[in-house]
Amino acid sequence: MTASDAERAVDEALALVARNPDTGGHRAAAWSRAREIAARAGAATRPRTHRVPLAEALGEVLAVPLEALTDLPSFDTSAMDGWAVSGPGPWTVRPGADVLAGAERPDPLADGEAVRIATGARIPADTTAVIRSEHSREAHGQLYADRDVVTGQDIRLRGQECRSGDQLLPAGSGVTPAVLGLAAAAGYDELLTRPRPRVEVLVLGDELLTEGRPHDGLIRDALSPMLGPWLDRMGADVTGTRRLGDDAEGVEALLRAVTGSAADVVVTTGGTASGPVDHVHPVLSRAGAELLVDGVAVRPGHPMLLARLDSGARHLVGLPGNPLAAVSGLLTLAEPLLRGLAGRAPRPRWTAPVRGAVSGHPYDTRLVPVVLTSEEAVPLRFSGPAMLRGIAAADALAVVPPHGAKDGQELEILELPWSAGGCFT
Ligand SMILES: Nc1nc2c(c(=O)[nH]1)N[C@H]1C(S)=C(S)[C@@H](COP(=O)(O)OP(=O)(O)OC[C@H]3O[C@@H](n4cnc5c(N)ncnc54)[C@H](O)[C@@H]3O)O[C@H]1N2
Ligand code: MOO
């Protein structure tokens, strides 16, 4: 998708949210549409790039293609410990002249000559083959091969893996440990990357305790401990997690974050519905934010929202306060937005057959915690909007279409970052 496609899609999303007359100006987006809107909003944002040492690039995304700065291998190399030989055998052993990895350029071989060579050492000019030490015998200054010698055997030719200038990886590739290794092999000390999107988390609510057991109508804040690490595993740079009360001071702090946070994305929790202290909509409206998604046809989590701040320079994801509803918003809106912002392609879609029938909502998609076996997705109990017991034991969420799924039906699977391979996917 080009940036202009993404911008057009954002305009369409704005028009859609604005068009509906019956709901005070908004309507729930279909679940897959909401994900697309979030992905496109991220992709339409002007990318930030920076040049960083290899060791700091892990988890970021290549801003430009990775092009080889050298041929690989950069010289003809012995693939085995043994002998470099020239012409047909037997060969006369060059005395006292082992060729080692990293050593000076060896002298060329004469026809009928052999020299002992180590894996990774430079091949002497005019070598026709390398013979493994276990396939040869040395006697009285002569070398004999125990089996047929094929010209070129066990020689890694210069440029076999790539030529200088070849594209090794496209822009948008995630920097994994393997990419760091490849970049180093190809001659890089630094990479031009798109940094992880910065995310600030604001947890709203007066009823939240930071320690101890719930008491007197107060409950433990389950989202602060969960969201920072979860967003981190999604590839975000979480700059902080703050708790804001429902009082005037909390509302002003929320407004300041909406208008002036240094983060690319503000994630809020709670206050998305229409209760007396649900401040997110009024604050967004005061700040002149544009709602790209205002409610999603998904259970749990339907009051989730996505707003565009500063003409698309920054975004806000409003997660509902019910903890599993917040997870649903994280996967529905935050994840595609962050991937778009980081320049990553949407995650590959895959399905698995579900074990047993799963009940559905009449109109909305359901996200159901599942354990993955090698054959199927097994739904878990305790998956109500306010419960974390199911998701804490889950590998993934299964996407159940409206009206539910039959036993064995293929369902889209959203793997959780820790079961899908950390923050590199
Ligand atoms: N009249 C309506 N009421 C509600 C609707 C609706 O459509 N109409 N939707 C319900 C649904 S569904 C959800 S989800 C919630 C979303 O509410 P909010 O985003 O405004 O969240 P809160 O009201 O602040 O909290 C909801 C629930 O979650 C608990 N909570 C909040 N933060 C945390 C936290 N950090 N850790 C643990 N639990 C948290 C909070 O105590 C509430 O129990 O609205 C429904 N209402
Ligand atoms: O969206 Mo709410 O999660 O159904 O509780």
TrEMBL record:
Residues 200-340 form the MoaB/Mog domain. InterPro entries: MoaB/Mog-like_dom_sf, MoaB/Mog_dom, MoeA-like, MoeA_C_domain_IV, MoeA_C_domain_IV_sf, MoeA_linker/N, MoeA_linker/N_sf. Coiled coil: none annotated. Pathway: Cofactor biosynthesis; molybdopterin biosynthesis. Its cofactor is Mg(2+). The keyword Magnesium applies. It is an enzyme of class 2 (transferase). It catalyses: adenylyl-molybdopterin + molybdate = Mo-molybdopterin + AMP + H(+). Keywords: Magnesium, Metal-binding, Molybdenum, Molybdenum cofactor biosynthesis, Transferase. Signal peptide: none annotated. It comes from the Bacteria. Its EC number is 2.10.1.1. Belongs to the MoeA family. PANTHER family: GEPHYRIN, MOLYBDOPTERIN BIOSYNTHESIS PROTEIN. Catalyzes the insertion of molybdate into adenylated molybdopterin with the concomitant release of AMP. This is Molybdopterin molybdenumtransferase. It comes from Streptomyces bambusae.
